[in-house]
Amino acid sequence: MPQNLLCSYCSEGLTMFYLSGLYVAVTLALVPSVNALKDGECEVCVSFLGRFYQSLKDGEVKFNSAEIEKAFLKTCKDAKGKENRLCYYIGATSDAATKMINEVSKPMSYHVPVEKICDKLRKKDSQICELKYEKELDLSTVELKTLKVKELKKILEHWDETCKGCVEKTDFIRKIEELMPKYAPNAAKARTEF
After folding, report:
1. How far is C-alpha 107 from the geometric centre of its chain's CA atoms?
2. Sequence-distant (≥ 6) Cβ neighbours of residue 43 within 8 angstroms
3. For a Cys-Cys bond, which of 33, 40, 55, 76 suits 87, CB 3.0-4.6 Å?
4. CA-CA distance, 139 to 126, in Å (whole number)?
5. How close are the terminal C-alpha atoms of the chain, in Å?
6. What's the rounded Cα separation, in Å, for the pair 165 and 159?
7. How many CB atoms lie within 10 A of CB 174?
8. Dist. CA 178–CA 105, nearest whole Å
9. Which pTM was predicted?
10. Which residues make Cβ contacts (< 8 Å) with residue 81, sequence separation at least 6?
11. CA 93, CA 74: separation in Å to the nearest integer?
12. How confident is the model at residue 16, as a pLDDT?
């Protein structure tokens, strides 16, 4: 076989190999990942990290891993409820058993979307995406007498208030109605119009 013909086949073969590799890379880039988050999944993670990312941009923080980690620890110190639980799972609380903070800070330093960060966190700890916000009560229309004591306590807890000496359900209702003008003035006004 002549030398020129052999090199011609090599050249065509390499070109085909590169083109097929390029085709696979482009196809994989355009096809959404099978494990990508769907709407509503990881709502606490996406919401909390989204607000955190926005606060970094607004605060003009340097986007490096160390600065983001420092800011994240500070933000988690003030987190409550489900957001505090998310911080615990990530390892940003003092009582956390594991530390995955770099799984947030490093990708965020490269401006990776929070949905992708939460998807990666979900692969490491599925509990992260199981967190859901509790439904908000419409205090202007809800009948407080129909709520359970546990739900009444949550309203007070949300307001960072306690009901010392409250024993009966009516005690909690009285305390909520007393504090409603301070914490939910629109709801208090709507309730007086009934």
Report:
1. 15
2. 131, 132, 133
3. 76
4. 33
5. 98
6. 18
7. 14
8. 43
9. 0.62
10. 134
11. 10
12. 52
Q: Which two tokens stand for residue 39?
A: 């709407």
CB 11 within 8 A of CB 17: no
Q: Which amino acid is at 34?
A: V
Among 129, 131, 103, 130, CA closest to 117: 103
CA quadruple 64, 70, 73, 79: dihedral, nearest 10: -80
Low-confidence ranges of the chain (pLDDT < 70): 1-37, 193-194
Tokens of 78: 């003030």
Q: Quick one: which of 133, 128, 132, 114 has its CA closest to 51?
A: 114
- Tokens found for residue 175: 């305390």
